[in-house]
């Protein structure tokens, strides 16, 4: 069996662990590949954040005439060339993926690349830690990082594997833009693709079993987004998919409503987006004795060390979707930076940052969030101690310029101290407007100091953020900035 200094499973965020520190050591990197092309480089690059947002941008342009009409400008989107767009996007992505594979496999002699599915094997209570590949390649190492990610969850309904039924792994490479697309799910992926394909002219039917969309977000944002989605594409709530079958060259999807009646929709394409499953089963984590949460995530301590019977194992780390409750690339990247440090400095390991984790959903409209929802904040410190402000984009100068009628920026703080507890945004550029709040929460700045301790460019859209902060009822110290 080959022996290495470092073994990594997963070429997404795991790939960034191979810093110059390892140049004179031996590293093995195993990856079975992502998506239908089994590409190197993980989810974000190949089937996740990057290609989706490369579709979101042209979708925003395709919607341009709607805003233009509000502003007395007549424009028309006359064509969306989906195949050309798809080929442009993936010609860039596939080249990056292939270059990354070549760099590790060929140019870096100290790295061995195993392009196969691997499974943990042997005793994991102490080093060396070993895996075996499907074809029988054995490798053991003094330190190991499990960064094997997650995959789309599939509902157990008949017809789920029919051609034409897609997940985010395959929908972006389809031959042609669907005429009629039924999307199952009401979370991040479902809402982003509903925004994209509806902008391209596809008839979108979004089906969710709960009473709203994006229900994990603050209730005000979830309600506002659900109302907007109803205006922009067809939304059917409180329905469960029970069957998918082939029908007249297309697909027939059967739904059961909350009162038990059955609905049928004939479409050409289905997208399933009901959450993601951590890949602990694919690596045989339970069989190797590693602690696994009930939801399938690997259990780790604050320093990302994997737990066995509640105790951290020295030199055995996990990061990203396989262990993190927040399946987000910026979270996986931060954890990778921490794990890279801990691998290189086992005598002074550090914890990963779990505070003020933000997220954005690049749908139409865009949404962003950081910190606690109002419900969570009330549970945490008592509703009587909260102050909240919902700032309409439309009540600021740039909002007038946009004739914006939908954008809202909600901020929540502790009225006793001015500590910001959370922010929740829906509207144009939500992912950017929220950044000063992320910064304030990360550096412990109170709401008033954040608002008045700096200039805000007038009349930029960022005045939405400033005004939201100024709308909170928080203490203003005597010597506060003016
Ligand atoms: C459609 C979509 C859009 C997204 N958009 C965003 C976004 O806008 N912003 C954001 O922050 N996050 C987004 N995410 C989430 C983000 O992509 C993930 O959180 C992130 O990529 C996880 O990185 P990772 O390194 O943990 O796993 P991955 O990048 O998934 O890497 C894991 C790798 O391990 C390999 N692997 C798994 N099991 C084995 C095995 N047994 N043997 C060998 N190899 C194995 C996999 O093939 C994969 O290549 C999106 C996700 C999806 C699906
Ligand atoms: N912009 C981003 O940052 C971004 C984009 C895409 C994905 N992601 C990450 O990927 C994760 C997975 O995304 P997702 O949209 O698949 O999951 P999600 O958890 O965001 O949403 C899942 C949705 O599916 C519904 N659902 C669950 N089980 C169901 C069932 N059996 N039948 C019908 N509906 C069901 C849920 O009610 C929910 O609306 C996200 O949670 C997020 O962490 C992030």
TrEMBL record:
A GO MF term: dihydrolipoyl dehydrogenase (NADH) activity
Residues given in the record as NAD(+) binding sites: 185-192, 275
Catalytic machinery residues: 458 (proton acceptor)
Binding-site list for FAD: 53, 122, 321, 327-330
Positions of disulphide bridges: 44-49
Cofactor names: FAD
Any one biological process term the GO annotation gives: 2-oxoglutarate metabolic process
Keywords in alphabetical order: Disulfide bond, FAD, Flavoprotein, NAD, Nucleotide-binding, Oxidoreductase, Redox-active center
Gene3D superfamilies per record: 3.30.390.30, FAD/NAD(P)-binding domain
Limits of the FAD/NAD(P)-binding domain: 6-336
Domain Pyridine nucleotide-disulphide oxidoreductase dimerisation positions: 357-468
UniProt remark on cofactor binding: Binds 1 FAD per subunit.
Family in the record: Belongs to the class-I pyridine nucleotide-disulfide oxidoreductase family.
NCBIfam families, per the entry: PRK07846.1
Protein name, entry field: Mycothione reductase
């Amino acid at each position: 069996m080959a022996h290495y200094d470092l073994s990594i499973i997963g070429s997404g965020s795991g790939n960034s662990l191979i810093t110059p520190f390892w140049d004179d050591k031996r590293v093995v990197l195993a990856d079975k590949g992502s998506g239908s092309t089994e590409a190197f480089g993980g989810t974000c690059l190949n089937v996740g954040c990057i290609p989706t947002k490369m579709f979101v941008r042209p979708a925003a342009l395709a919607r341009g005439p709607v805003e233009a009409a509000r502003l007395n400008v007549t424009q028309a989107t006359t064509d969306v060339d989906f195949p050309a767009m798809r080929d442009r996007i993936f010609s860039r992505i596939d080249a990056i993926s292939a270059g990354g594979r070549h760099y590790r496999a060929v140019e870096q002699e100290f790295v061995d690349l195993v392009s196969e599915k691997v499974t943990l094997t042997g005793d994991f209570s102490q080093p060396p830690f070993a895996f075996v590949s499907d074809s029988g390649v054995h490798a053991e190492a003094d330190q190991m990082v499990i960064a094997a990610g997650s995959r789309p969850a599939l509902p157990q309904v008949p017809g789920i594997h029919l051609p034409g039924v897609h997940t985010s792994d395959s929908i972006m490479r389809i031959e042609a833009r669907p005429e009629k697309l039924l999307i199952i799910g009401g979370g991040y992926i479902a809402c982003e693709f509903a925004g994209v394909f509806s902008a391209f002219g596809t008839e979108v039917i979004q089906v969710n079993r709960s009473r709203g969309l994006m229900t994990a977000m603050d209730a005000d944002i979830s309600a506002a987004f659900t109302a907007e989605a109803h205006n922009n594409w067809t939304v059917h709530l409180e329905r469960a998919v029970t069957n998918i079958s082939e029908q007249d060259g297309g697909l027939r999807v059967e739904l059961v409503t909350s009162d038990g009646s059955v609905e049928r929709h004939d479409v050409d394409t289905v997208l399933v987006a009901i959450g993601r499953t951590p890949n602990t089963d694919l690596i045989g984590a339970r069989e190797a004795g590693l602690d696994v949460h009930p939801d399938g995530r690997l259990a780790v301590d604050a320093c990302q060390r994997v737990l066995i019977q509640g105790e951290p194992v020295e030199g055995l780390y996990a990061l990203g979707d396989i262990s993190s409750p927040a399946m987000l690339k910026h979270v996986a990247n931060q954890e990778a930076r921490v794990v890279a440090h801990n691998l290189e400095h086992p005598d002074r390991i550090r914890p990963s940052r779990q505070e003020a984790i933000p997220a954005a959903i690049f749908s139409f409209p865009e949404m962003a969030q950081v910190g606690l929802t109002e419900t969570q904040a009330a549970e945490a410190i008592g509703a009587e101690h909260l102050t909240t402000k919902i700032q309409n984009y439309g009540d600021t100068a740039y909002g007038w310029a946009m004739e914006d009628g939908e954008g809202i920026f909600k901020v929540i703080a502790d009225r006793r101290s001015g500590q910001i507890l959370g922010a929740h945004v829906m509207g144009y550029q939500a992912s950017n407007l929220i950044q000063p709040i992320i910064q304030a929460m990360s550096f412990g700045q109170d709401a008033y100091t954040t608002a008045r301790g700096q200039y805000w460019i007038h009349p930029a859209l960022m005045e939405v953020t400033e005004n939201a902060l100024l709308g909170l009822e928080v203490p203003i110290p005597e010597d506060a900035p003016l």
